[in-house]
Amino acid sequence: MREFVTPATVMLNLGAGPATNQPLRIFKGAVARVAGADVDPAVLENRELDDARVFKAGAPMPYGAGEFDLVLSDFVLEHIEHPLQFAGEVRRVLRPGGSFFFRTPNRMHYVSIVARATPHWFHTRFANRVRGLDTANHEPYPTYHRMNSRAALGQIARAADFASVELRMCEAEPSYLVFNPIAFLAGVGYERVVNRFDMLAGIRADIFGRMVK
């Protein structure tokens, strides 16, 4: 994203949630404006935004057409129940030539497969624990995994009339396996193998993408 922002960029962090406290993910001060929107009121306390708004899931976003040069959604797409409506709203608020950047789990990865096979109450009870997160962290949001494969994202981008879509696959550190040393080492081995061979890109953990209006 840093390749595409300038001090004049007006951007929307869609699904911004609470502050990340991670310098790489903070754009406030480096661009003209960072707006933030989320269905979770926690966004209103996010000090990494210039302004924040709460809106209802599935409702139109509270912004005008062509208001933003860039929209970012980081680990949000897996929570979208109505993908085409969401993509259409993203396209609406982008200026012509603007970009929608996102990172989301790949539904073909073992973590996503387990997530889809288990009920939400299981995620609520165990997800933060196995990642080693503090109990004060918010509970996991419901997931749908309807925008979480290369094929689905390509189809949605075309249906929403985006001009182009670029996708990159990456296997990250096995953070969900930190609860057990043996499982963690197995996850590290998996990471090394799937990142080394392009033929295994389809089962890497995360999808990084850019759709252009």
How are the strands ordered across the major sheet?
A: 3-2-1-4-5-7-6
Radius of gyration: 17 Å
The total count of helices amounts to: 5
The largest β sheet comes out as: 7 strands, mixed
Low-pLDDT residue intervals, each spanning 5 or more residues: none
The helix content, as a percent range, equals 25-40%
Our measurement of the CA-to-CA distance between the termini, rounded to an integer number of angstroms, reads 16 Å
CATH classification, class level: Alpha Beta
Order of helices and strands: EEEEHEHHHEHE
Number of strands: 7
Count of folded domains: 1
Strand content: 15-25%
3D structure, described in words:
This protein has 213 residues and is α/β, with parallel strands linked by helices. The chain has one domain (2-212): Rossmann fold (3-Layer(aba) Sandwich). It is 26% helix and 23% strand. It has five helices and seven strands. The chain has helices spanning 83-93, 110-117, 120-130, 150-159, 181-196, and strands at residues 10-14, 33-38, 51-54, 68-74, 94-105, 164-170, 206-212. Strands 3-2-1-4-5-7-6 form a seven-stranded mixed sheet. The longest helix has 16 residues, at 181-196. The radius of gyration is 17 Å and the shape is globular. The relative contact order is 0.15. The mean pLDDT is 91.
